[in-house]
Design brief:
- The structure holds two protein chains of two kinds.
- Chain A is an alpha+beta fold.
- Chain A folds into two domains: 3-53 and 274-406, no CATH class; 81-261, no CATH class.
- Chain A contains 13 helices and ten strands.
- A six-stranded mixed beta barrel of chain A has the order 2-3-8-5-7-6, surrounded by four helices.
- In chain A, a hairpin with a 2-residue loop joins strand 6 (175-178) and strand 7.
- The longest helix of chain A has 44 residues, at 268-311.
- Chain A is elongated, with a radius of gyration of 34 Å.
- The two termini of chain A are 25 Å apart.
- By secondary structure, chain B is of the alpha/beta class.
- Chain B has a single domain (14-256), classed as P-loop containing nucleotide triphosphate hydrolases (Rossmann fold).
- In chain B, the strands form two sheets. Chain B has a six-stranded mixed β-sheet, sandwiched between helices.
- The longest helix of chain B is centred in the C-terminal third of the chain and has 16 residues, at 186-201.
- The radius of gyration of chain B is 19 Å and the shape is globular.
- Classes of the chains: A alpha+beta, B alpha/beta.
- The interface between A and B is medium-sized, with 21 and 25 residues.
Chain lengths: 409, 264
């Protein structure tokens, strides 16, 4: 018997009891849909995390001074006076893989407008920082080189600060006071959202680095008590940039070979990769749980195929009497199980796609439809059909035609 | 195995030699056949008779390649089929044999045409040719106008004719009928026997199991079994089912004839 003939026989047998076929298929549908929805949700979450890290800048390196270990009381990381403002310029000009480098000095301070005041993070930095963070102004303008040169008393607000101080009103041109120094608001940055650790990126203000050094923190002269943010020219160049920066700083700081660095370089790409792996693990776990329902669906198929073989014992006997070989009956019942699970797989694919889309919408994730997963789910559904259809099919093929013909059904 | 039609003219169609069949159920041994010898020539029509438990069903199953002898040999059209595998037996059934059963054994919810096509599907005959041959077989049994009817839409006699069409569609040498008239009224029984006689006249070999002596009279040879052995084997001139039908028709045309006879 050809496969096509077996397929037709299977279709006819399945249309004979539509309710039962539907219920059997439903098990597979739910199983496949669950797997696809879970995988899609996982892929969406991963994309989401990737996007979050991209807003943070995955091609970014953060360099901080190492702990001050020379005194009896050790300070924390960044407490040593090892990095200099000259280092920043050296990194920018001498490291080939580096595109931008900016010194970042931060402190928490009260910032006051006429109507309200707010405690926030005040960051003094050069325009390069906002460029490498890909953080443009939404209204007004951002910091520029001129502000830096003239130590201008200007400030750019994060969205949270703008809202807290001015509400719906326009902050542009207004004056705010930071540590008793009046600053003119020249712009409000675009919304950056939440950091992976829950910190609000937008709860911050930026002022020129030169102004920060003179008005906010008198400080350490040439030494930089803060961070240097460096961006590699491409995300792929991050590792090379890290190497170049490390080598350059060791040379500039005259670190002896074998001695420890007096600074620390943090690489956000590694962090992002770790996060992605975590999500991947959770996705796999969810899919595994969903796969259990697929197996349950497969058992449903097996159950119905067993019933079908028993119900159609006489038909099997007739087919054997007129020349069907055991293998013909094996194929016939296998094809039937395959058709059942195949239809279930296709319907489950549709349902899973819809579920994944709705889930992504509800959770505000990026909607991703994983093609490989879809193909895999269909494949697995068919595999389930074959595996769980095999036993009933073997049972059918092993029936004794004499007994089968005598069966009353 | 010889290809179809290779069997020589003088060679027996069925040749059982010292065939036994022993069923083992736990410690119990049931000897259904105790060494049967039977030779059936081409074109014969043989009635196998016997009470239940005589071994006639067992013998029929072995002749029909649905079962294998425990010992002894069975040569079908010259080939020894007593040691073939289940799969090989299925092929032999499909090519050499046609079955007619007491309970028709048609696939329900399947049209007459598709029922008749069934053996050809397993013989590997492709779609159009299969339909053509199935249609021809149904026309041969006088059901050319009932191709799309399902078994439930047909009378018992018509269902048995569909079954006969299915049995002969593969043009087998041997037709095996197991109580083919058991579920039919006497008029329809005679009609079916007339059809089988016609097939015998066309050259088919017929082996028919029955417990009704009336039916056995339509066949040319009666083999009786008792306790797993052949107790009687005799040839006679069969009566014509056509003639019997004509007689029945005459009675039906003149219903008073039998009534008058009753009064006489």
């Amino acid at each position: 018997m050809s496969f096509f003939a077996a397929f037709r026989v299977a279709l006819r047998a399945l249309t004979r009891n539509l309710t039962r076929t539907f219920l059997t298929v439903l098990g597979i549908v739910i199983g496949v849909a669950a797997v696809i929805a879970m995988m899609a949700a996982g892929a969406g979450a991963r994309e989401q995390i990737k996007a979050v890290f991209e807003t943070m800048g995955t091609n970014m390196l953060v360099i901080r001074p190492q702990s001050d270990a020379t005194t009896a009381v050790r300070g924390g990381e960044g407490s040593a006076a090892s990095l200099t403002f000259a280092d920043v310029d050296a990194i920018r000009t001498e490291c080939a893989a580096v595109q931008y480098a900016a010194a970042v000095l931060q402190t928490r301070a009260q910032i006051g407008a006429e109507e309200a005041n707010w405690n926030t993070q005040v960051t003094g930095t050069t325009p390069d920082f906002l460029t490498l963070r890909q953080w443009p102004a939404e209204i007004g303008k951002s910091l520029n080189e001129e502000h830096e040169q003239s130590s201008a008393k200007v400030v750019v607000l994060g969205q949270t600060v703008a809202w807290q101080l001015f509400g719906d009103g326009s902050p542009i041109g207004r004056v705010v006071r930071i540590k008793n120094t009046p600053f003119e608001v020249i712009g409000v940055l675009s919304k950056k959202g939440q950091a992976p650790n829950g910190q609000d990126y937008d709860d911050t203000v930026f002022i020129p680095l030169a102004t920060y050094r003179t008005k906010i923190e008198g400080g350490l002269g040439d030494f930089l008590r803060g961070s240097i943010y460096v961006s590699a020219s491409t995300p792929e160049q991050v590792m090379r940039a890290e190497g170049q920066v490390t080598a350059l700083l060791r040379e500039r700081h005259r670190t002896a070979p074998g001695a420890e660095d007096d600074f620390r370089v943090r690489n956000l790409a590694e962090f992002a990769t770790a996060r992605e792996q975590t999500t991947g693990t959770i996705t796999t776990l969810l899919a595994a749980i969903a796969a259990v329902s697929l197996v349950v669906g497969g058992i449903g198929v097996m159950n119905i195929m067993m019933v079908s073989v028993v119900e159609r014992t006489r038909e099997i006997g007739i087919r054997m009497a007129v020349g069907a070989r055991p293998i013909d009956l094996l194929v016939q019942f296998l094809v039937e199980a395959l058709v059942l699970s195949g239809i279930g797989g296709l319907l489950g694919l549709g349902l899973g796609a819809i579920a994944a889309d709705q889930l992504a919408k509800a959770l505000g994730w990026i909607s991703v439809f994983p093609t490989e997963t879809a193909l895999m789910a269909i494949g697995v559904a068919s595999g389930v059909g074959i595996v769980f259809g095999l036993y009933p099919a073997i049972k059918a093929s092993r029936l004794d035609p004499i007994v089968a013909l005598r069966t009353e059904t | 195995m010889n290809p179809k039609g290779d069997a020589q003219a003088g060679q027996p169609v069925i040749e059982l030699a010292q065939v036994t069949r022993v069923y083992t159920m736990g410690d119990m041994e049931l000897r259904a056949l105790k060494g049967v010898d039977l030779v059936i020539e081409r074109g014969e029509s043989v009635a196998i008779m016997g009470t239940s438990g005589s071994g006639k069903s067992t013998m029929m199953n072995i002749i029909g390649c649905l079962d294998r002898p425990t010992t002894g040999s069975y040569r079908l059209l010259g080939d020894d089929v007593s040691r073939l595998s289940r799969s090989e037996l299925a092929v032999v059934r499909g090519r050499r044999l046609g079955f007619v059963f007491q309970s028709f054994n048609l696939l329900s919810r399947t049209t007459a045409l598709e029922n008749v096509e069934l053996p050809l599907i397993y013989a590997g005959v492709s779609g159009r040719e299969r339909r053509r041959r199935a249609k021809a077989a149904l026309e041969r049994v006088g059901l050319g106008s009932r191709l799309d009817h399902r078994p439930s839409q047909l009378s018992g006699g018509q269902q048995q004719r569909v079954a006969i069409a299915r049995a002969i569609v593969g043009e087998p040498e041997i037709l095996l009928a197991d109580e083919p008239t058991g579920n039919l009224d006497s008029q329809t029984s005679v009609e079916v026997m007339a059809m089988l006689q016609e097939l015998v006249a066309q050259g088919i070999t017929l082996v028919l199991v029955t417990h009704e002596p009336d039916i056995a009279e339509y066949l040319g040879r009666v083999v009786a079994l008792k306790d797993g052995l052949i107790s009687r084997d005799g040839k006679h001139t069969p009566i014509s089912a056509q003639a019997a039908l004509a007689k029945l028709a005459a009675n039906a045309v003149d219903p008073h004839a039998s009534a008058r006879q009753g009064h006489a």
